[in-house]
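Final report, Chapter 2: Outcomes

The project's central promise was a pipeline that accepts a single protein chain and returns its three-dimensional structure in a standardized token representation, suitable for archiving and comparison. That pipeline is now operational. To close this chapter, we reproduce one record exactly as it appears in the project archive, with the input sequence first and the structure output second.
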Amino acid sequence: MPTPGGDDPDRPAGLRIGPLDLAHRVDEALRVQAVAFGLSEEEIGIRRYIVQRHMTCHGARALGAFTEDEALAGFVYGMPNDRTHWWSTVVEPYLRAGGHDGWLDGSFVITELHVHPGFQGHGVGRALITRITDSSAEPRSILSAIDTDSPARGLYRALGYTDLARQVHFPSASLPYAVMGAPLPLIRR
């Protein structure tokens, strides 16, 4: 039976998944993130700086989901985890408390994954995260997500991610997060 993306089940219909020059398309990506995640103008400015800094890290890479006219419908980026990065220093005590701090080594961290609401529910997030982790040299992946029962957390669970720490508090976030990890490759449907 044909899939909506043709012969490739990881390709949503009507979209092309491919490399994204995130440093040059950061404003477009942040517009997608702002709509999908609800960011203020101030938060967008802060994230612009963070994204540009992340893209200079060793092994950082990004993928986009592009419409036929090359507009960005979603994006993902990540890198091999580094214990000295801010995110790792925040989550490490939570992971250590549960005996999971080893996950900070040998992991590809999904830093951001966002899909424009008009394209959500059509496999775009699944295609982005599986494609970027498939190219990872690391044996596992970690990420953080708002600690609530959401479609995003449901997707991560379906891909094989499990909770490593919950009720993780980032200094600038009002809601608690969960840190999740999965062996690679991620589970396919």
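Archive annotation: The longest strand covers residues 72-80.
This record, like all others produced under the grant, will remain available to the consortium after the project formally closes.
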